[in-house]
Amino acid sequence: MAREAGLRSRRATFAVLVAGLCSYSLLQSMVIPVLPALQEELGTTQADITWVLTANLLAASVATPIAGRLGDMFGKRRMFVAVLTALSLGCLLSALAGALPLMIVGRVLQGIGGGVIPLGYSIVRDEFPDASVPSAIGALSSLIAVGSGAGLVIAGPIDETLGLPWLFWLPMVVGAVAALFAFLVVPESQVRTPGRVNLPAALLLSGWLVCVLLAVSRGTVWGWGSPRVLGLLAGAAVLLVAWIAVETRSAVPLIDMRMMRLRAVWTANLVAFLVGLTVFAAFAFIPQFLQTSPEAGYGFGASIGEVGLAMLPQTLAGFAAGLCSGGLVRRFGARNVVTVGTLLAAIAYGLVTVAHDQYWHLQVAFVIMGAGMGTTQASMATVVVSAVPRTQTGAMSGMNANIRTIGGAIGSAVMATVVTASAPVPGGLPTESGYVTGFGMLTVGMLACAAATRAIPGTGRRRRAPVGSGEVAATPLAPLPNDP
User: Fold this and answer.
1) Which PROSITE patterns does the record cross-reference, listed alphabetically (predicted)?
2) Which phi and psi angles does 226 have, rounded to 5°?
3) For the chain, how many structural domains are there in total?
4) How far apart (Å, rounded) are the C-alpha atoms in residues 13 and 7?
5) Could you give phi then psi for residue 115, rounded to 5 degrees?
6) Which domain range does residue 6 map to?
């Protein structure tokens, strides 16, 4: 009876986590296809409307690692409810926004919802049996990828049938319901990290993240050699050095630098950066390629809805691969699974580079791309979670997600520079060669990522380390060796 009650409790907890993570991941991508419509609705310029994306990116980059750490300290359920409440309030403001400033405020609050990713992983690790954790984390990771892909699929139909505000009303309802049920059914973790909030470290972390992401996300608008961009990059370097120094000397660090030096953690972060570098860039430019009129010599003249349908196979393949990742990791090891996933993604980008004249060419590439990325992202989450003590799960998985975001911002900016540089006139339509060069660059980047995965430590002999000792918590979940 107790076993059945525990199983029901875990199922309810997992359902709540799924709802919360999906509401956030949908918001990450649903706005991208409808930016021109939002620009017209809000009466703003093409340059200014991109702040709808930039503001959300900046807020998520700051909130994700900090929310994970606060969850380790004060309770995962409490923070999960808090970030979902912020997300729901942000959706409300964006749905009611009649001008750009209020929309941006709403998007900032939605970005705080990024904390659901490390908090969700932490709740799974605390509440689920060790043998079930890899599969559960793999499923959550695949759902995050599915939500991002599904946002591109459903944005057009929602806009056409219900109107733009419903892009925010629907996630608001899902987020609010998830927050309520999280409060009611998710157990509060008894695993806590003692200490207080390291405010100087939090401010320095926020400072360098904002500087670097603002510089790379606005570089194509302001100019890469402009004083603003160069100043932000210089400021990011100074603040990063200061942040590392503060964290290293602190008795209660926000992000424990000892954990960051573990081989499993730093290699996972390197791979996450390279994955973000390629995946985000592809997400940003594949829709543009599909929407380009064939009169330009390439493209398919697809509508927003048709773009979503074209990318649906990728979403489904990613979901299926993510669900299978837990079993694959147990059978073949995380390193081998991640290597295969990144190689599949490299093959997909290579196919897009050389074969994009027919619709079915892209469909084949999208399926391979989805399978590769679904496998990789789900397995990488398991690597990080299993490599650190339970008291560090939120902070370390938050930083891993954040490093992927930084890579994505840089990759998107570089891709934009490469593609738009091919336009015959500034601001004009890019040529096909620009896309070919861009996707060729992504292919090389993913091959480099595949090479980097071989540095991830393989399965080693398990041993049990005391929680909070700074060593790898070696349980059946955590076969990775303590190899700093």
Assistant:
1) MFS
2) -70, 155
3) 3
4) 10
5) -65, -15
6) 1-197
Pick the closest to residue 389 from 259, 271, 250 (CA basis).
Answer: 259
Spatial separation of the C-alpha atoms in residues 334 and 441, rounded to whole Å: 26
Residue 283 backbone dihedrals phi, psi, to 5 degrees = -60, -35
Question: Can you tell me the distance from the alpha carbon of 170 to that of 236, in angstroms, rounded to the nearest whole number?
Answer: 36
Q: Are residues 173 and 227 in the same domain?
A: no
Yes or no: say if 61 and 405 are a contact pair by the CB < 8 Å rule.
yes
Q: How confident is the model at residue 17 (pLDDT cuts 50, 70, 90)?
A: very high
Helix axes 334-354, 432-453, angle to 10 degrees: 170
Mean pLDDT comparison of 141-145, 147-151, 450-454, highest-scoring range: 450-454
Say yes or no: 147 and 77 in one domain: yes
Q: How far apart are CA 364 and CA 342, in angstroms?
A: 16
| pLDDT > 70 in the chain, percent | 92
At position 170, the amino acid (one-letter code) is L
Q: Are residues 166 and 216 in the same domain?
A: no
CA 271 to chain centre: 13
* Overall average pLDDT of the 295-299 stretch: 88
Question: What does the alpha-carbon distance between residue 54 and residue 448 come to, in Å, rounded to a whole number?
Answer: 27
For the chain, the distance separating the N- and C-terminal CA atoms, rounded to the nearest angstrom, is: 44
Q: Are residues 261 and 224 in the same domain?
A: no
What does the alpha-carbon distance between residue 334 and residue 340 come to, in Å, rounded to a whole number?
A: 10
Amino acid 100: pLDDT: 92
User: Which of 151, 173, 197 is at the close of a domain?
Assistant: 197
Distances (CA, A) of 400 to 65, 163, 255: 8, 35, 11
* DSSP structure class, residue 187: P
User: 379: Cβ–Cβ under 8 A, 6 or more apart, which residues?
Assistant: 138, 325, 328, 329, 334, 337, 338, 341
Are the C-beta atoms of 107 and 59 separated by less than 8 Å?
A: yes
Q: For residues 386 and 264, give the distance between their C-alpha atoms in angstroms, rounded to a whole number.
A: 9
Question: Is the domain of 59 the same as that of 118?
Answer: yes
- Which of these three, 197, 213, 245, is where a domain ends? 197
Radius of gyration of the chain (CA): 21
Count of CB atoms within 10 A of residue 105's CB? 16
Q: What is the pTM of this model?
A: 0.81
- Contact (Cβ atoms closer than 8 angstroms) between residue 217 and residue 417: no
Give dist(CA 383, CA 433) in Å, integer. Answer: 38
